[in-house]
Write a structure and sequence with these properties.
Strand order of the largest sheet: 1-2-3-4-5-6-7
Shape: elongated
Oligomer: single chain
Largest sheet: 7 strands, antiparallel
Number of helices: 0
Low-confidence stretches: none
Strand content: over 45%
Structural class: mainly beta
Length: about 120
């Protein structure tokens, strides 16, 4: 985490391993590596913005792909998020965000793109 007068930059990394001890669940076994970068910017004492980017790689151990070429499923997911928040009161905030997700996979049935707009209120107690 790096702080600037009106900006906060965060970098992160996550590793996840799903490894079932049950033979019939090996279809779900995979390793996941995820890198994230985010930036929060204070526009003034009531308004701040947020932007993040992440890339995740999911390598399945035993999940064959439908093209049947002897390879296991390998996913790459990219996520972009941008948001704007407005502090109505000290403990009450209104937020608007947009998230775009793109999943590229060597399994054609697992390729997708999605977009999501979110409006929310946040209360601190």
């Amino acid at each position: 985490v790096k702080f600037f007068p009106k900006d906060q930059l965060k970098l992160g990394f996550q590793y996840y391993n799903n490894n079932s001890s049950e033979r019939y669940l090996h279809y779900y076994d995979y390793d996941s590596y995820k890198g994230t970068a985010s930036l929060t910017h204070l526009f003034n004492n009531k308004t701040f913005g947020y932007f993040s980017f992440s890339r995740e790689r999911g390598d399945y151990h035993n999940r064959s792909i439908s093209t049947n070429n002897g390879r296991c499923q390998d996913d790459r997911t990219y996520v972009l998020t941008s948001a704007l928040y407005y502090n109505i009161k000290k403990d009450f905030t209104l937020g608007l965000s947009y998230t775009y997700r793109n999943n590229y996979s060597n399994e054609p049935m697992e390729r997708y793109q999605s977009s999501m707009f979110t409006v929310g209120t946040y209360y601190k107690f």
